[in-house]
Amino acid sequence: MSQSSWYRSRYRRMLVDMHIPDWDQGFLARYDPQTMIERYVQARVNAVMFYCQSHVGLCYWPTKIGTQHANLRGRDVVGELLALLKERDIAATAYYSLVFNNQALLEHPDWAIMPAQGYRRPGRYGHVCPNNPDYRAFALAQTEELVTGYDFDGFFFDMTFWPAICVCPHCRRRYLEETGKPIPLTIDWLSPDWCAFQAARERWISELAEMFTAQARLRNPDMPVYHNFATALSGWLPAVPFSSATHHTFLGADFYGDRVEQLVACKTMLNLSEYHPIEFMTSRCSTVFNHVTTKPEAEMALQAYAALLFSAAFLFIDAVNPDGTVEPETYARIGEIFAQTAPYEPYLGGASVEDVAVYFSDSSRADISQSGIPLDQAAWGQSPHTQAVRGMCRLLQQAHLPFGVITRKQFTALDRYKVVVLPDVTRMDADEVSAIRSYVRSGGRVYASGMTSLTETRGVRHDDFMLADVFGSHMDGIDPGTVVYLKPASRAMAKRILPQKYVQYDGTTLYLEPQPEGDVLATLSLPYGSPERGSVFDQSWASIHTSPPWLDTDRPTLVRHRYGKGEVIYCAAALEAEESDVNTRLLVALMRDLLDTPSYTAEAHPAVWMNVMHQPDQNRYLIGFLNAQSQVPPMPVAQIAFTLCPPAGARFTTLVRLPDEAPISFATTDDGVLHATVDAVPIFALLMASYAQA
After folding, report:
1. What tens digit of pLDDT does each residue of 124-157 get?
2. Bridge partners, 486 (sequence order)
3. By C-alpha distance, which of 471, 476, 404 is closest to 436?
4. β-strand partners of 551
5. Domain boundary among 348, 367, 395
6. Suppose 324 and one of 28, 266, 357, 478 were both cysteines; which one would form an S-S bond, judging by CB atoms 3.0 to 4.6 Å apart?
7. Within 13 Å of residue 452, how many CA atoms lie on the same side as its CB?
C-alpha cells in the first residue's frame, strides 16, 4: 500500500488531545513517546493523529518560527513519536490548530478576531482572524516547516471556521474591496446585503482551507489532507460551506451528541466526501467537559460499530493528563473494542443503497429567527431546516427505509433516487428549483415541507413558493410561532393518526390558498387563542396549559399533486422537525406511499439501524444491523426479518454472516427479492449477500 492511500484500509484510529499550556513546570513533564506507542499498540489502532501544535499555540517540535512548549526543553517529541509510529506501521497524521492560537494572540494582539462590539476578553482559547495576512503568513510558514521537516502520512487542520463574526480592519478592508460595501452590522436573512456578507464569510473559509491544504502538500502532493468538518454541520455561524469539501482528501469530523447526530453526520459525509472511508470521531469521555469519566464499554462499542455500518473509519479521542500521562485502562478498553471490529474491515466499502434522498441545504442552515439582532448577539444552534433534516433522518431510519443525505452536489443526478425529501428548505436558488421541477416532471417523487422554496439564498423572499406549480399549492400568508392543527381530510388519512383526531404543530404556520391544484389530504384547524396568552383577567384561553382545536377551516395543509410524470406531497407544517409518535407514523406512511417498492425492508424494533452497502465490482451487498438502543448495554434483538432487491438481471447465490462467513438460509421470490432472517443482534451484525447475473 502506498503512503498516500493508507486511509483506504485503516479503520481503527485515535487522537490524544494535548491542549496543554506551560505555565506549570510539571505540565507535559512526563510525556513520553515510547509510552504512547505502547498505549497505541494496546489500543490496537492502525492510524494515529497526534499533536504538533494545539489551541494553546505552543509547538511540540523545536520550531524556528513559533514557540515550543517550554517544558519539552527543546526535545523533538514530534520526530520521536513519528519514528516510533512508522516502526510499528501505524499511519501518522499531523494535527495543527488554525484560528484557535493563544500564543499568537498573546504575542500579536492585533491578530485577534474583532467582534462588532469591539475587544472583549477571550475565554480559554484566543481566536485569530483568518483574514489577517500576518497570521496567515505565520501559520503557512509553520505548516511548511512541519511538512518539509517530517515525513507525515497525513495532515489534519482543526478549527478551520469562524468562531465569531469578525469586523477587524482586515475583514472590513477585504469586504469593501470585494463588494464596495461596508460590513452590515445587523443580521437579516431577508436582506441581500447581509446574505452577501455571509456568502463572503463562507468563501473566505473555503479559500483558507484550500490554501492550507496546498501548503501541507508542498513535499508530497499526494498526501491526504483534511480539515475538521464538524462545524459545517452545526449551523450558519461558523460559515463552513459544504463546497469546501473539495479541499479535503476525505471528510472527517468530531461530534459529541446523540445517536441521530452520528447518523446524520455519517450519511451526509458519505455523499459529500470525494474519497472513502469517511472518518467519525468522538470522545471516549462521557462528555468533552469531563476528563475522567469514561463511557461504558457498550456505548463505546456501539459508536464504533455505527461507523462500520457505513463502512466508515472510527477515531477515539482521549485527553492527555496535564503531566503528559494517559490511563492504560482506557487503552485496554479501546483495544478490546477494536479487536471486535477489526475482523469486519476486509469486507468494508461500497456505495450506500439509497432510495430516498434527504436534502441537506447548507444555505438553509440560516436561522431566520435571528434576523434583526446585532452581530455580537449571533448564536450557535440548529436552524429549522437542520432540525427538519434530523427529524426526517430519524424517522426514516426507524422505519428501516433506504435513505441517504444529499447536498447540492447530488442535484445533477437526482434521477438515481426514487424520492427526494425537501425538509423545510428555507432558502433555494433558481438552479435547485429548476432541478427539482425537472426531476418531478420526468417521474420523480418529492416530499416537501414548511417554507421550502420561499426565499432565495441572496435573501429575496417571494410572495409564493418558487415551486408552487410543482406543489400544487400557493401561499396565502405566514403566522410565525403559534400552535395549529392538521385535520385529516379522509377516513383513510384519519386512520393513520388514530387514536388522535388532529396532528398538532407548533411553529411557523403557512396559510395556503383554499383551493389547491392537488388532492387535499389534511386541512388547517385553529386553536382557542394562543398558548402565550391568557390570564385570570384576560380569559382568551380554553384549557389547562394548552390551546385545543377550535375552528376547522377549508385551508389545506397537506396536499398531494401530480406534476408531469411525477408526484409531490407538500405539507405546510414541518412535522418531521417535531419528534412524536403520531408525526412519525403519519410521515412514514406518506413516505411509503411515495416510495412504492423499497430496495430493502426490515421488520425490526425502531432502535435497530439498517444500512446496505453495494459492492458491484465484487457482485455483493453488505447488510448491516445496529442495535442502537439508548440504554446500554442494549437488550439483544432477535429474529429480524428483512428483504433485499437484487440488481436488474441478477439472482442471489449466497448469504453469510460476517466475519466468520457462516451461511444463512434465505429464499427468493419470482422477482429475485431475497427474504431472510437474522437470528440475533446483540449490538452489531453484518451480512454479505452475493449475486450472479442470471
Report:
1. 899 999 999 999 999 999 999 999 999 999 999 9
2. 503, 524
3. 471
4. 526
5. 348
6. 28
7. 33
